[in-house]
Amino acid sequence: MTRTFLFFAIFGFAIGTVFSQNxxxxxxIKRSLVSAQKDTTKARLMxxxxxxxxxxxxxxxxxxxxxxxxxxxxxxxxxxAEVVALRExxxxxxxxGEIPKAxxxxxxxxxxxxxxxxxxxxxxxxxxxxxIFNTEIQDPHKALIYLRRAIQLYQSNRFSPRDEFVGTLExxxxxxxxSALKNNHQLDSALLFFKKATKMxxxxxxxxxxxxxxxxxxxxxxxxxxFRLARERAxxxxxxxxxxxxxxxxxxxxxxxxxxDSSRYYGKKSLELAQLLxxxxxxxxxxxxxAEEYESIDVKQALHYRKIAAEANDALYxxxxxxxxxxxxxxxxxxxxKIEKDRIAYENRVKQYFLFTGLFILLLxxxxxxxxxxxxxxxKRQLQEKNKVIEQTLSNLQxxxxxxxxxxxxxxxxxxxxxxxxxxxxPLNFVNNFAEVSAEMLDEMEEELDKGDTQEAxxxxxxxxxxxxxxxxxxxxxxxxVKGMLEHSRASTGVKEPTDINALADEFLRLAYHGFRAKxxxxxxxMETHFDPDLPLVSxxxxxxxxxxxxxxxxxxxxxxxxxxxxxxxxxxxxxxSSHADTMYQPTxxxxxxxxxxxxxxxxxxxxxxxxxxxREKIFQPFFTTKPTGQGTGLGLSLAxxxxxxxxxxxxxxxxxxxGTEFVIxxxxxxxx
Length: 673
What we know:
Among the domains are: 1-117, Alpha Horseshoe (Serine Threonine Protein Phosphatase 5, Tetratricopeptide repeat); 322-367; 386-490; 498-668, Heat Shock Protein 90 (2-Layer Sandwich), CATH 3.30.565. It is built from 22 helices and seven strands. It has helices at 2-16, 22-35, 39-55, 59-76, 79-96, 99-116, 119-136, 140-156, 166-183, 187-197, 205-216, 220-236, 241-256, 260-277, 280-294, 299-317, 319-451, 454-489, 501-519, 542-573, 578-584, 636-646; strands at 497-499, 526-530, 538-540, 588-596, 599-606, 650-656, 660-668. A hairpin with a 3-residue loop joins strand 6 and strand 7 (660-668). The chain starts with a helix and ends in a 5-residue tail after the last strand.
């Protein structure tokens, strides 16, 4: 691990100084090479010199040290250094225009990296092959295959920052993949990858490609901005192949827009730098561009540039080069076919192993099954007898559960009836009072008629009429209360109806309060309502939701009553009167409704003692209750939870000890129009 880290640390240092201190870097590495004791160190240093000499334009020395690094790495079986040497030699041969050799070395590097499982080196080799097929062989479709594999490999591995040029690889992949997409006429996708690379690209090449695409897409102003940015980036770095590409692309752009002076200027700069770097592809392209532009103004110059381009073309694409290239590509195809054939053969062997293993397991299982079958026949009769006992027990349990549920419903009905009785008492009192007064007024009217005072008799008759109207009004009120009681006490029909949730909640709050007061005359509580005035009608089963509200409100009243009694007892124990203790705690029940998006929220909140965290998750379980024996079945919240769930909603609880509890009913909105 340490040896690999030192290799890449030194290699990274060489890359970091190549543009500012290339010569001094070469001398330093050569001195280190002379004093190196270990062969592994020598192989690493030779690979570094391959890279440094290539970037210093001394390509002969780059080839020399590349082969020295390759030979030594193979001798000592230092495979990672061998992959690096092969890859760097391939890159150098590509710069020299030796495309067949470049392709051969890159394929060798890839095969070795794949054999040894060097994931980062595989990605680098795939990137290099993508560049060769895209720029040199001009086959963007094939290039995209290699580059897409490299990107997938890079994204699926979490490479350490200490690994070799992880950031540089990301830049290269984005730029090269985008370039292949552009050459494959996928301009929109290419634009995305070029823009991703602009933040890390140092020589302006990514910005230049963006400018070309924007220009081709018909956005000249955006293109001009990126062309200007590319020129500025190119001026900020030393002469290198990337700068060469920038100059040539600028020359080509200015040729398209008919700014021929600028085109010739950048064409000459790209040609001079390409000749200095022995960058034959740009020599060919720049030579052809200048030859075409000078044909109409200076034939001699045009011939000069045509000759330069022809020499570069022969060096790059001569008949022998093409044959070598075809042979290498054919060999690689055969290699891939052999790999695929070996893979299929391996899979077939694995399938055979699985088949034989499966047959053995089946035989083994067959023996166990036969044995178990005999045991199963013996135990089946016993199981059937036990099932009969279990079924009978389950039937008894279901019967008991149904009785308990009915008991819970009857208990709720009893509480509801007590509240309704209190509600009916008020209008009945009015009816009785007005009836008595009306009887007395009839006696007075008879006396006045006997006296012959018809005027006074008519006045008494008018008052009687008003009393009768009031008697009728309060009678209808009592009738309405009775009708509501019958509606809420009858069994649920299971039919959903458009329901005013605000009215339903308000009605059950009042009925529950009076029902609680009927059991405890000393109980008092503050009741607050915060109803959403714009709440729509909600499609629910009113009787079922009413039972849910009644249960939650009764629980809230029970909670505040318990805390109130506890407060009184605590204050009394230290000599404070109960009336003073009541002022210290005010029982409060709050009901609110709210519409949020497509949900209706109904909140029932109390300031009781709260629910301990240890039992909070159990409160919706059937038969769980904290009330004393005989005061609760433990089915109220369980039934409420099931009713809300059946309506497609949620019933949640939030509680804090000594602060209170809030139940939240969440129902979906279904507005009936």
